[in-house]
Design goal:
The protein has 17 helices and no strands. Residues 144-148 have low confidence and may be disordered. α4 (58-80) runs antiparallel to α13. The chain has helices at 3-19, 24-27, 31-42, 58-80, 91-114, 120-130, 151-166, 168-177, 188-224, 231-248, 253-265, 289-294, 299-329, 337-358, 366-374, 380-391, 396-435. Helices cover 70% and strands 0% of the residues. The chain is mainly alpha-helical.
Amino acid sequence: MSAAFWALLLGLLLIVMVLAGNLLPRLFVSSAMIYLGVGYLLGPQVLELITLDPIDDAGVLGQAAEVAVLISLFAVGLKLGGTPLRDARWRPPLRLASVCMVLSVGLVTAAGVWGLGLSPGAAVLLGAILAPTDPVLASGVQAGLAADTDRLGFSLAGEGGLNDGTAFPFVMLGLGLLGLHELGSGGWRWWLIDLVWPTAAGLLVGAVLGALLGKLVVHLRTRHRQAMGLDEFLSLGLIAAAYGGAQLLSGYGFLAVFAAGLALQRVREQPQAGTHSLARTSDPGGHSYKMRAAHSHHASGAMSDAVRGFNEQLEKLAEIGIVLLVGAMLSYATPSTALWWFVPLLFVVLRPLAVVVGLVGEVMPMPQRAMICWFGIRGIGSMFYLMFAIEHGLSEALAQQLLSITLITIAASVVMHGVSVRPLMWLYRRHKTRAT
């Protein structure tokens, strides 16, 4: 298909989504559901316009998913960075991304071995692929909530930001059990090289780069009126630097990018002596960007707002591209009777069980706990790990089996969570208002 046709098709899709933006909530349809359907129509089964084979083209698809995940993780870090790290709101997402994720991997592994007939290594790999929740597709859950203040939005966003990185060691464990990765005698290499070091290195590299770059930009703007504008380059540059720096040190780039977003958002103002904050203005547009960006009381806020705004728009574009690809790849999934019980088991039993056990002792209203149990949305992270595993030499039969399970699980998540998000969020906000 020609570039002109692709441009026309993409342009029409974007315009239709803008025009139908207010109509979708009334139809209980999410934007991801539209992208998924359009992707299927463009795939080999119907129009044959997107014909990428998920096994033969795993490298290209994996890179596309990886870029989308990086953009999303940086956006989540920016959303949550204003909350102090010692704040009690961090406890649920940390437990969701560690204890609950390990439980999810274990429960899916058990279902894979005893229900799907997978080997232990393949079952662990499947658990690691399906364990991460998706921060991009979960944005609909946070609509109407302030992710940095509401505990539900904060927990789901934080979980999605963290567990896309913390799932990596379990992917490597699954590959190791399949004989496709070196685990070391007694698993020492996995513990040290795949778990402890890359996790610590990723978080450290991202935190240091985000903090140093943010402080440097604020200093140059407020003291020398330099480094003004081009916040889009700042966003992309920090994502690339954090990811590349972590990878060079054998750290996890996903965690580095998330930590970089957190650190950049936490950069504080550097007020000059004898200066005061800008007074409120009657102008609906407020003070100009240049005025705020160079003012010592507002430079950090102006920088964070600009970077966050650009990254959120970039995140939406990434969502369109990846969900379209998932929809197109559904043609390659092989339906099986096992999926009729496995997918409901994952969402209705395994995810809630992992959350309930993992959050034991956490003081939390029942409606909030129930919402976290239900909204374990699978998406772009699962697609990346699937492509990563296929690239590492899975047998054709196992690759096809994991491909079918993962793609159908993602599609089911997009549909089930997309249909239920608005009525459930309406009930949640209603309960919250009554409680207040």
